[in-house]
Task: structure prediction
Amino acid sequence: MRALVWDGRELRFDPFYPPLLFKPAIEDGGSKIVGATGSRPLPPRAIVKVQLAGICSTDLQIFKGYMGFKGVPGHEFVGTVADGPNEFAGKRVVGEINFGCGNCDACRRDLRRHCPNRLVMGILNADGAFAEYVSVPAANLHVVPENISDEEAVFAEPLAAAFEILAQIQLSPGDEVLVMGDGKLGNLCAQVLRLSGAKVTALGKHADKLALIKKTGVRTVDLKDWQPCQFDVVVEATGSASGLELALGAVRPRGTLILKSTIAGKHQVSLAPIVINEINVIGSRCGPFPDALEALAARQVSVTPLIQAIYPLNDGVAAVDHAGKPGARKILLRPT
Amino acid sequence: MRALVWDGRELRFDPFYPPLLFKPAIEDGGSKIVGATGSRPLPPRAIVKVQLAGICSTDLQIFKGYMGFKGVPGHEFVGTVADGPNEFAGKRVVGEINFGCGNCDACRRDLRRHCPNRLVMGILNADGAFAEYVSVPAANLHVVPENISDEEAVFAEPLAAAFEILAQIQLSPGDEVLVMGDGKLGNLCAQVLRLSGAKVTALGKHADKLALIKKTGVRTVDLKDWQPCQFDVVVEATGSASGLELALGAVRPRGTLILKSTIAGKHQVSLAPIVINEINVIGSRCGPFPDALEALAARQVSVTPLIQAIYPLNDGVAAVDHAGKPGARKILLRPT
Result:
């Protein structure tokens, strides 16, 4: 099949990538997962024909060595089930990216996102969605309601990550929230947090991206006009290490700081404000897909303005180049 | 009066320290607090004759420049009210160390520990307890039950700080908790967290201090025998920056890390585990005195074994030297 392949040094388009995912041992993660599950029956999987896939900042980090991943990248997708359990046959689906072993404490507590033996689509030991087909455990799939377009559904994964914040903390109407970062994740977080009735301010340094956020009804502030002040909740979604000091200073005593950016490397940071002000710092990663799909179906969030361009899969290398350019918005790949 | 005085460079014993605390403008923090409270009546204060005062790691940090404090240090004390509101006349008391302005949002929400205009006894713009007398807002005082000795009551402040953890998180019997640090605060935290029914392990590197913790019924592990494993809750109370990486690695996914050490300077640390494992990091500082006094009165915690020596106030400089020696336990000062 056609696929983009990262070999640890170079990203290339491969017109004849072996469809390894159809071979059971590999399909289920190779020896690692087989070892972990022992002789239990393997969980049912589905083969999804990818309609659209999104290039995410994490993908760009992978091309800098993050996670040491090799294989087909890509973890944001919408597609049609080509093969799999009957209930999904021919259905349009999106999919959660963490493949749990199904056999550990975390999986038993329905926390497969934190399974210590997990594979992660396009990130850790599992081929991803920058390809004609992707293999996904059926338990990870969610059927897409008809009134959601492919161009909207492909945002389900990052939108779910934004909804994770609401699953982690209780926001009340009138709470003052600062979202730091005007990129794609910052935009989605600002829109989602606003649904709680909180007063959301987005802080960024790109006039065009701030304008995009402002259109959704969120108050925006350009970093160059920033006056230090304090918020009940601050969300760090800048994707850079430098924002952390400002973020800690912008949380009121006993307030909450949500960390959304996974940044490789070490921070040089004073953590004393966390103790002195008794701040609650919460790491936040993947989130609930049903909430994301509901919000898209109900038109509560607006995602398509974030799309910058759609490339055919064959031009995937150029698409990734484009996604890495400063100021780029969401770049999508269309394999079909 | 007699007092220990830190002038920013040197700690000395002053037999004739001006009892500034009896002059109203200074007593209430000088122009800063007077300005903050405007023309409102000043909150009633008490003059406490100090019976015992404890030297704490924060004091040692102050002598390295922390907070830029100048004046009489000391914030752990037990004493007798020499002058003040009738309800406290002649009573034996301990006192909370944060003096709120009484007029801001934080104070109105009963959070004077987080008042932005606060003075902090012996730490920030207010003379402390290494003296014959200390001036304290009456609202900060707590009467000490008769069955608690002075040597026990002087631990009320650090013990309250340990109870703060239970005020911040819900521990369940059977929860696995790791307390990092076998010093005074680590010891108190381990004892207090055990009251919740949690399974507490203390990690340290001083055989004698670990033995002291073990006597309270807490499981102990020497750092040299440490095998990486994961806990529901980890409390960082080592007082050093180096423990943070180990601490983050010892928290299970979605677990909690309590930061107890206020460490000056910057950490060099990777925060990615916080995001990937969705860890909840909570800063924890001063705590509820009533809980501390109740636990002491009910003999639920054991504090006097932590005492290494009691010095007369006149030998206070030598006492501070002793407190700074590696392996030192709690050093107390007796002004009378």
About this structure: The two ends of chain B are 11 Å apart (CA to CA).
